[in-house]
Amino acid sequence: MSKKVCKVKQGLLLLCCMVAATGCKQAPPAQMETEYEVMTVSPADRMISSAYSATIRGRQDIDIYPQVSGTLTKVCVTEGQRVKNGQTLFIIDQVPYEAALQTAVANVESAKASLATAQLTYDSKEELYKENVISSFDLSTAKNSLLAAKAQLAQAKAQEVSARNNLSYTVVKSPADGVVGTLPYRVGALVSSALAQPLTTVSDNSDMYVYFSMTENQLLGLIRQYGSKEEALKNMPAIDLQLNDKSAYSERGQIESISGVIDRSTGTVSLRAVFPNKEGLLHSGGAGNVILPVQKTDALVIPQVATYEIQDKVYVFKVVDGKAQSAHVQVTRVNGGKEYIVDNGLQAGDRIVTEGVGLLREGTPIREKTTSEPVVTDNQTKEE
Q: Least packed by Cβ within 10 Å: which of 1, 19, 324, 376?
C-alpha cells in the first residue's frame, strides 16, 4: 500500500513540474509590420540630356581631281600634311602641254600674218574699185577673206588660252587651307579627270561640322519650347560631344542650322552643329554622339529606386486604399539614370512606394514610415 502511495506522489510531483515549466515559457513576440517610404508625385523642372548619333565632317572636304590627263611626275605632299590655299599638291607630265602651247602660239602668229595680208588685199581692192578697175564681186571677195582671217586669229588666240590653261592644270594646287587625306596614287600613275577615286581630299578641319538627326516630334517640341526655329538656333545652349570611344570631347559646340525638309524615308530632320578643333582631335569621317540639353517643365520626376522592370517594362507600386497596386509607366531617364521623368502612367498627386519595391506584391498592405518624435522621460523637463 505504501508503494502505491509513493508512486501517486511521484506522478503528482512530475505533473506539477510540467505545469510549472509550461508556465515559465514566454509567449512568441508579435510580428513587426514592415514600414515603407512613400512619396507624392508632384511636377518639377528638369534639364534632361538626349543623345543623338552623329557623323563628323570637316568644315570643307574637297576631293581633288586632275583637270587634264597625263602621268604623275611628282607628289609634293604627304598624308596628313597641313597645306595652304594655292600650295602645289601634284605635278602631271608637262611636256605634251608645253608643246601644245608652243603650237598654239605659232598658230596665233600665223593667223596674224594672214590677217595682215588679207587687210592689204582688201585695201588695194577697195582703191581699184573706186577707180572702176575691178567689180564689186572682187571687192566683196576680198572683204570676206579679211573677215575669215580675223576669225582665224580669234580662234588661234582661244586655242592659245586653252593650251595655257591646260599647262597650268598640270600643276594641281590646293583650293583651300586644310589637311591632306590619303594619297592612293604615286609617281608614274596615269591620271585623268574621269578617275573613280580622287587624287586626295583636302579637309578644312579648323572647325568641324557634326551632323545628327532628330524625329519630327522632337523637332516640334524644340520649336514649341523656344517659339520658332530661328529663336531655337539663337537661344539654344551649347551642346556636348561624346566621341566614339565614349569619352567626352573637351570643347562645346553650337547648333548652326536645322534643315527645313523632313526626310520621307526616315521621318527625321537633319541638324548641323559646329565644334572647334584646335587640338586636331576630331577627324573628318569620324562618329560620335551629340548630347543635347532640353529643359522640361512641370515634369513628374520619380527616383529610379521606386521602379522595377519586367521584360524591359518599367513599373511602380502606387498606394491605393492603403495597399500596393502596380502600375506600368513610360519613363525617360535623366540625371545619369538616377531619376526618371514619367511620360505616361502617373498623375500629379499619386502616391508611390520608394523603397523595397522588389519585395512587394500586388495588394500588400502599406504602412508608411513616420518620423518618430523624441520620448521625454520622467527625469527630463520640457522647456516652457
A: 1
